[in-house]
Amino acid sequence: MGDGRSTGEAASRRTMLGLGLGLAVAGAASAADLKNAPSPITRKASPGRFAGKVVLITGATSGIGKATAHAFAMEGAKVMFCGRREALGAEVQAAIRSAGGEATYRKADVRVDEEVAALVAACVKTYGGLDVAFNNAGIGQGGAVLGSMDWKAHNNLMETNLNGVLRGMDRQVPALRARGGGAIINTASVLGYAGNPQLLSYSLSKAGVLSATRSAALQLARDNIRVNAVSPGPIDTPMMGGGAADASGKRTPAGRAGQPEEIARAVMYLASDEASYVTGEDLRVDGGLRAS
Question: Using an 8 Å Cβ cutoff, are 139 and 156 in contact?
């Protein structure tokens, strides 16, 4: 018995050592890449870790959503995605299909419940169900200066960024339950943790997304549905155009703006089996901004 325990302990130590070395290598790779933006994803689709899975993405005609739709499709997922700009949606769909992936664009506005419901229904009808939902649609305008509130702009931002996420989850949950569970990822922001004098409405909407994510995770754990958020820092997307992403990125410890593909990888982790015990969390992808 003593020899068996020693053997088991030795095996355990070897396992832990292997895990530690793996983490060390991963950490070294991450550190080496922190200062350098990744190359765009250009490979062809192949059976991968999301083969057989159905993924629904809102706001995927550009930026983070576009990169994430492409990334999931390249890993074998069937992707249904939406956006309000039909021409861009058609371009994204064509690009994914030309790379051998499977994706379908449908025009939908997350501010309109009937359109969100129709999007989910189309996803289930087209691909047979739903396994992963990424509620990403959002806008970045200001709209709140105390003493002279622009209530129309403020309400539009809240309807899109916060209520759009709530509408998405509300309509996605029955489809996820029908599959025996799944994963929801919501796009928040590092600004959900801090105030910003120019972006009061935006920061408020993203703080709301973080709160809704935690509450939804508690509600849906019994249904085997994990709910998490991803909080980007300054990312080089059309929303942060005009040099804003580059200027903000230089103020991060990483010294650069992030790329949409880096958010896509975080979303894919949260959607994957590797995150099977992760729910109610927010993964900040911000080049160390919130650590400083």
Answer: yes
